[in-house]
Amino acid sequence: MSTSPDPRPLTGEPVSLDLLNTRWVHEGAVRDLLTGTEGLAIWLAGNALDFPADDTVLRHTLEARDALRAAVDTPHGQDPRFPAQAAARVDAVLAHGRVRLTLTDQGPGGTPEFDDPSWGPAWLAARDYLELLESAPDRVRRCAHEACVLHFFDTSRNGTRRWCSMAACGNRAKASRHYARTKES
């Protein structure tokens, strides 16, 4: 378990989007939390995933992140290859696990099972993405700021959230518009 603080500007999103958000831009440079097992430990702890932060888990988690990025960043209908390429990459990650259905005293349930436990975090992130697509695919969004690469699940009542953070990207956009207006005057 890592004791280092999570350096990312946006945390707390569903696990699939939180995995995508392990890459972000800070002062014009791309940062990556998953450059080693220490960053993986931070991400696992931040998502309450009880898996070892070792090189194999890191490799599988990076494979899932790349597959999810391909799926999320290729809008349906804009790229005719979307189903064939992006979905196949997510499906390849999903092939390493399954949900065993159960009946508990609280009713129906399910337990994730993995061919190899090192695929656990990767599989859980890919499965989470499918659940987001089932519940509200139009609410999976990329921040509207042109320099931002972060993703979020829009939980606003009317579904109009545009920014990963109003304090960061939203404020930068407002300041930019204000500057443009005062420059014109």
* 3D shape: globular
Q: Tell me the β content.
A: 15-25%
Following the backbone from N to C, one meets helices and strands in this order, namely HEEHHHEEHEEH
If you average the pLDDT, what whole number results? 89
Strand segment count: 6
Main sheet: strand order: 1-2
Give a quick account of the main beta sheet: strands, pairing sense, barrel closure.
2 strands, antiparallel
> How much helix, percentage-wise, in residues?
40-55%
- The number of helical runs is 6
List low-pLDDT spans. Answer: none
Radius of gyration of CA atoms, rounded to a whole number: 18 Å
**Alpha-beta content class:** alpha+beta
CA-CA gap between termini: 55 Å
Summarize the structure.
With about 180 residues, the chain is of the alpha+beta class. The protein has six helices and six strands; from the N terminus they run αββαααββαββα. It is globular and about 65 Å long.
Structure explained in plain terms:
The structure is a single chain. With 185 residues, the protein is an alpha+beta fold. Helices cover 44% and strands 16% of the residues. It contains six helices and six strands. The chain has a two-stranded antiparallel sheet. A hairpin with an 8-residue loop joins strand 5 and strand 6. The radius of gyration is 18 Å and the shape is globular. The N and C termini lie far apart (55 Å). The mean pLDDT is 89.
